[in-house]
Amino acid sequence: MFLGLWVCVVLELHFGSDVPTTMVLHALVVQHEGGGTSYTVDYDSDDGEETLKVQLFSLTGVLPENQKLVGLSDIRNGQRFLTLVEKEEEQQERTISQDPSTGISPALDLKRIAILDEELARALELEDAVHANSYPPQRAFAHTRSVREAFESELLPYFHRWAMYEDVARQNAARATLSLDELEEDALVALAREGKRDVSLAEKADAMLLQLLYWFKKSFKWVDQPDCDVCGSASVRTGMGSPTREELAFEANRVELFRCRNCKREIRFPRYNDPMKLLETRSGRCGEWANCFTLYCRALGFQTRLVLDFTDHLWTECFSSSLNRWVHLDPCEAVFDKPLLYEQGWEKKLTYVIAFGDDGIYDVTKRYTRDWNAVLLRRTKAPESVVHEVVTTLTAKARVSKSSKELELLRLRDAKELVELATTLPPGSKQIHLPGRQTGSEAWRLLRGEIGNSQDDGAAAAAEGSSSSSAGGYNNTLRVCVDEHVSKVYAALGSLLKSSEPARVTRLWRRVLEKLKSQPFKSRKELFGKGLWLKEECALPLLQALGLRRDVQETGQVLISLDGDPVVTALVMPVALQLLAYLSNELEKHISPNLNLKLLSQGRRRLSGGQTCASNEQLPLEIASAAFDGVHTTKWGEPKGAMGGWIEYRLVCDCSTSAEILVGYQITSAEDSPERDPWNWVVEGSNDGGQTWMCLDIRKGEMFEERLLKKTYEISQEKQNSYSVFRFRCLSVRDPVSQSRLQISCIDLFVK
Fold it and tell me: Which overall architecture, per CATH, does domain 225-281 show?
């Protein structure tokens, strides 16, 4: 007995710009009479019957050898109908039924999608073979219980672990290790630096999640080989050990053994799986990092998943309410929402990427690849139908206690995510530049093959950026500089220099701000003494820049408190503290104003409110605008800038400021890696948007002897002309042989 499928030719597309004129391309709608499902396939009538069968196989799951095409010759003669006939038992094998109690809608037909994914990969193999006039052996799976059990056994440890993340005691312990007030302050300040003041709760939540990621990166320690806890020396790996009872209590089923190179003491490195213990040790590799970070995300109330990559990596996903989708977070790399990092940056050959949550297990591999068909060919642990069956069964177990309302919400979310995962970009889509793995020693990363091609990518981006700059076209991101508050603080420092005792007053105001900085950002207020310096008019611009007010009490004491938006004060506070420290240090070193103080004492105005772009950026943090935010904790990083990189500052033209005369500038070295400091550079100006440049200043062999050292440079009088764009172009860094990067903490431009 046979069941029929009819195919209707709804459109004929004749030759296009890159298609031979003899080709006739038919867009065929395939209607399955039994299932009521429609498919579309493009068929080139010149390719022949075998190719058409492969195309129909990729859509219907009917193997080419089980297809009978009735009326194929009539298509070439203009007939618009084609019937595909298959055996009834083949059709019945693909008919499925699902239990609604699992919370997965039968209308989605997920199992069929999973099966067709596997069959599509086989179809591609066959399709290539058709063009090569040969057929490869078909990939076969043993559909046995042992295959299912083996695949399920790899998922069960992570499935059962999820209860730890929902444990109230563990969540409370996680929250006790961080300051929610500081996290909220950092999140709102980060948004303010982007020019976002009035934000929704969803945007604020996402910003807090991002700050949690950055905080975790700084507070957790990566371990390649543990240092000796007695003498502090490095160690060498000696093998594996048996876990003790205490180690097993925190699920350390594996223990790595090392020996101190100095005192020869044995060092144990238990690979703990209990996040409660990891809150104490705060160290490990990607497993420990993702494990502990996932607990923090749940402790702060985020919908969270732990993500297992079968090629040996783990990370986290959280649901973003503002984006209305799941986002990728890698705590080891401090990377947010860059799912292609592993395939394109690390050059991993992904197979299975499985996400675990409190409401089930999800095969999210498609989110992390642009070449799903190639991934399918590497998924050899089990047939796609078995993978789907295991995932569905475990998801049903996770949802058994969910209410009907919760199940309905989950069904809607599943449907949306299914559509999202189905809309993957083709392999030929434009590539984005993502770095290779950063954490771990270089030898370890090389051994794992995760260095990637980031250096080549960086070079290509830098070259592209340099050439586009000289041509006046910009493929680089143009970023807005939210830095008006920095210029206000500089102006306020110039006012402080007018005090009768500038060195003493600067030092005292620095102590005042440190006291206020330590308080909760929403309620900063402090009562100070009766000193006259607190009441001097020269300090008023500083208070206004900070969004603070001072009130002299009846006792003569001075109360300093917030005078407006607390986020403004939080944004300006670190800039003011850093510049007060700088000014105090300069005043104590020099009796008379030196070059570093000259720009301030002369009342030169710092440029602000412009836009910036660069030859390249070290994403996600070391972006171009970070060079102008006035904060030492940020910096601009150029991945391939050791032998050439540039950054521009563009005036936002209006009726009042279309061009400015640059009289001087300051460069602040970054907090680490002196070999990445700029060594030789040129400062240039342009009035035609970067088509042509005029040299304003050249420096060679400039040494930054300290970290976070601010140095001042003057523009000679004959070079002081009006320009609308300024460019700092580094020719080489301090040590271009040892590494390839350029980094600068701050750039400040001063005009008349």
Answer: Single Sheet (2.20)
